Amino acid sequence: MREDMAKYRRMSAIRPQSFQDLVTPLYWAAYDTGLELLKQQEAALALPKLEEALQGSLAQMESCRAGCEGPEEHQGAEEEEEKGTQGGLYEAIAGHWIRVLQCRQHCVAETATRPGRSFPVRDFLPSQLRRLHEAYAQVGNVSQAVENVLSVLLFYPEDEAAKRALNQYQTQLGELRPDLGPREDVQRFILRSLGEKRQLYYAMEHLGTSFKDPDSWTPEAFIPKALREKLREDQEKKPWDSEPPQQKPPTYWKDALLLEGVTLTQDAQQLNGSERAVLDGLLTPAECGLLLQLAKDAAEAGARSGYRGRRSPHSPHERFEGLTVLKAAQLARAGTVGRPGAKLLLEVSERVRTLTQAYFSPERPLHLSFTHLVCRSAIEGEQEQRMDLSHPVHADNCFLDPDTGECWREPPAYTYRDYSGLLYLNDDFKGGDLFFTQPNALTVTAQVRPRCGRLVAFSSGGENPHGVWAVTRGRRCALALWHTWAPEHREQEWTEAKELLREEEEEEEENEEEEEILSRDPSPEPPSHKLQRVQDKAGKPLRVREEL
After folding, report:
1. Which residues belong to the active site?
2. CA gap 412, 399 in Å, rounded
3. Does 99 or 230 have the greater pLDDT score?
């Protein structure tokens, strides 16, 4: 559906007013509109929408809290006994009140969760206040800017950026204004929330109840000492949207690239983004030819892994062929494809991993999580008036929402992917350039033309939305690789493929040794020693020398 929507947006007769969202609440629509206006430097137009979003968010929480009141369904005695809730009147009242408080606190997360999503936006209210104080400052309304930045400091008293902004606003005002303070609606929200948290943490410590705090701004003083460490670990594991990583200038590594015959063609600044790079010289023309032949042989044998030779899942106008490292090793073992190509596939993937780690993550090891030799071929006779892309704009470890510019790092996205790489094998085709966009998936910020031995490497998150222009003629082949910091997500098939190829090499060496022994013995009599093929207990073939 997202791909269809993107296709409709590119049609000349379609206008934004043609789309009507029947699901998103009004405060979310106002929030999204306000953010879009801020991106366009229209602070005056954005302010009413941002205020509407904040008031709507607070009203939604009130409505949600009201739903927490009322009677509960009566539980049977057996269920109460199983849950340990059996007791007298006071226990029943305490249990009911705790459940009401838990429900009320959950309203924060419910309000901050966009429809159709699984997890809330981190610091939804404080982030709205930050945008409000910045927008008021841009239009020259310093008094309102002060009120909103003071409201941010109610959530995070030590926020350095907010304190610097407050000092700047006070300097502009020229004097302290005792009548200026935080927003009253925000003060009421925080005081009420802290009162409820205090009760819930008390019950958690003394009554053995559970409570998942939806907020990261809760003062540590409100949390009992015995619970702080565990809650801190839970907060770190919570699936919030993460901030895009900061670019680490790899100036110390450029000389190493040159020494290895690899050149840095474009860095992140030249590509108008963060954590992006184009590197040339990773493959020789002969190596590109060997991998292209491997893909051709595998395709002709009907060994297309993943999509089994069907039309591309991304475009009905292209055919998509994919080959994994393990499938390549299995085909080489069967004699269907050449072993040098399968071996090179393994070697090159490790080459890319080493360079990616050295460039982006020198202090933290990266592991291959998936390696895929991919070819996209234009289907003849189906390229006229084509409007779609070879691969729609996306991010590799989160779901990109072009309407809001947010990227949701949650399952079933490949959330463990940290860096991506595309190593190109050819350029004798039309179309098929890689391009990066802004989070709206429409504004192109950089474009890269494939060529033999060229690697485009980048971080896998929402800071690097990318897509592929339509391949309208010929066949485009590349090695797609994804890397992870998490060792538990390393590619097991890569290890299996390496072992399979190693066993084949050992068998060939043993065959050559046997032939050499037999060729040195000219007598027609059987040799005093012979090599026999046997199996070990695990069923693996072994060659042993048997004394006769």
Report:
1. 476
2. 9
3. 99
